UniProtKB/TrEMBL annotation:
Gene3D superfamilies: Dihydrodipicolinate Reductase, domain 2, NAD(P)-binding Rossmann-like Domain
Segments forming a coiled coil: none
Gene source species: Bogoriella caseilytica
UniProt keyword terms in alphabetical order: NAD, Oxidoreductase
InterPro entries reported in the protein's UniProt record: Gfo/Idh/MocA-like_OxRdtase_N, Gfo/Idh/MocA_oxidrdct_glycsds, GFO_IDH_MocA-like_dom, NAD(P)-bd_dom_sf
Protein name: Putative dehydrogenase
Length: 390
């Protein structure tokens, strides 16, 4: 690998910390990337979580105290993947230590935490901060985004964006930090999955003017560590009906995030229909992109038609993978990191950028509007960033 070396540290060596370490091991798959990342340090408060990282030869620091990691001169970029209630303090400490940061969503447990992280970033403009959101890097999602952004769909008629899974269909599944307000946040599933569903709409400039929401807590108790039921007090499902006023037109947009969507394992989907065309993509059929058009029928006339194409393996950054091969979750993580580190190096060009801190913070304003809308049973205006800061 020829790119400039970037030394990466991880805080939180759980599910996502290991995913990043694995992605960095596949870095040579990227063609002509300007940066060569090297994982040098990992912190987790559980010593047993650190053991997995011993197999990675470039790691020279394993610690249970993240302050030790931040004191190291051997780290340029830090990835933090910890519980939501820890985001605010750890992200701010990373920024104050002068390390660049790829934060995990939801970028703070609530809106106040997100604003406090934004303040820390504003006080350190030399620090590069972005937030993880990898699903838009599926090639089908990239094709959908480019189709929409081109304006080819004409006046937008309707939008549906969703992230759906059913990890919580099993009512006997033990409680964990992702299912409790104190550690996940009052926004519940909107904290877990919100940025996944909002990233592309926000990037298109589709900030809703109003939100109406239906929120559901379907499973209210789960077995605790000793089997005794404990409160499972977060929202499981959230359906937000939004009104978007954009580029001289106004249209409805539905944004769904669900932990209990029977039949769905981990489905990210986007469907946008306009007067001149439509596009839809779902990771349920990860190769397939559907395009709507009015087509000429042999023999005469035109008809409405949804047509299917196969998106291959190529996403934002080119890889050595054969163009016709399939793409998956771990490829999306690699692509997100390729774009994060390329943007940091000033070499992203017009490729799709990782979610920025303001996009991440916006998801908290939307969740707050949804919570109010749910309680009051009416559509609620979304706070503008200026109002939220006042
Ligand atoms: N981008 C995605 O697709 C995606 C998927 C899952 C989770 N996430 C996000 O990633 C973050 C972490 O989720 P996860 O599933 O990896 O959680 P996890 O519970 O699997 O891992 C979290 C790790 O953090 C460690 N930890 C706790 N406190 C710590 C501290 N003070 N210092 C260092 N380590 C500490 C825990 O011991 C644990 O190993 C969350 O913000 C979550 O929303 C993102």
């Amino acid at each position: 690998m020829n790119g400039a070396e970037v030394r990466v540290g991880i805080i939180g060596g759980g599910l996502m910390g290991r995913e990043l370490a694995a992605a960095l091991g596949r870095w040579p798959a990227l063609i002509d990337h300007p940066v060569c990342p090297r994982l040098t340090a990992v912190c987790d408060i559980r010593p047993e979580a650190l053991d997995w990282f011993r197999q990675i030869e470039t790691v020279t620091q394993l610690t249970t105290d993240y302050h030790e990691l931040l004191a190291s001169d051997e780290i340029d970029v830090v990835y933090v993947a910890v519980r939501h209630d820890l985001h605010e303090s750890i992200y701010a400490d990373v920024i104050r230590a002068g390390k660049d940061l790829l934060a995990e969503k939801p970028f703070g447990i609530d809106g106040a935490a997100a604003e406090s992280i934004l303040d820390a970033a504003a006080a350190h403009p030399e620090v590069f901060v972005r937030c993880s959101s990898e699903m838009p890097y599926f090639p089908g999602a990239q094709l959908a985004y480019q189709t929409i952004a081109s304006g080819a769909l004409g006046r937008i008629v309707s939008v549906r964006s969703a992230f759906l899974h059913s990890s919580d269909l099993d009512v006997h599944k033990p409680i964990n930090w992702k299912r409790q307000v104190a550690t996940c946040g009052a926004a519940g599933v909107m904290n877990d999955l919100g940025l996944h569903a909002w990233h592309v709409p926000l990037r298109l400039g589709w900030v809703p003017s109003t939100v109406y929401a239906d929120l559901e807590n379907i499973v209210t108790e789960r077995p605790g560590p000793d089997g005794t039921p404990v409160a499972c007090d977060t929202w499981d499902n959230a359906v937000l009906h939004c009104r978007v006023d954009s580029a001289g037109s106004s249209f409805p947009m539905t944004v769904e995030t669900k932990r209990i969507a029977p039949g769905e394992k981990n489905t990210w989907l986007l469907e946008v229909v306009g007067m001149d065309g439509g596009v839809r993509f779902s990771t349920k059929n990860p190769k397939r992109v559907e395009l709507f058009a009015k087509i000429a029928i042999p023999g005469g006339g035109t008809e409405q038609s949804w047509q299917q194409i196969d998106a291959g393996s190529q996403s934002a950054w080119p890889t050595v993978t054969g163009g016709i091969f399939e793409f998956g979750f771990s490829d999306a993580i690699l692509q997100m990191w390729a774009c994060f580190l390329a943007e940091r190096a000033g070499a992203l060009g017009d490729r799709f950028a990782t979610a920025n801190p303001h996009e991440a913070a916006m998801t908290h304003r939307l969740a707050a509007a949804a919570a109010e809308a749910h309680v009051e049973g009416r559509a609620v205006a979304v706070a503008s960033p200026a109002a939220a800061n006042s």
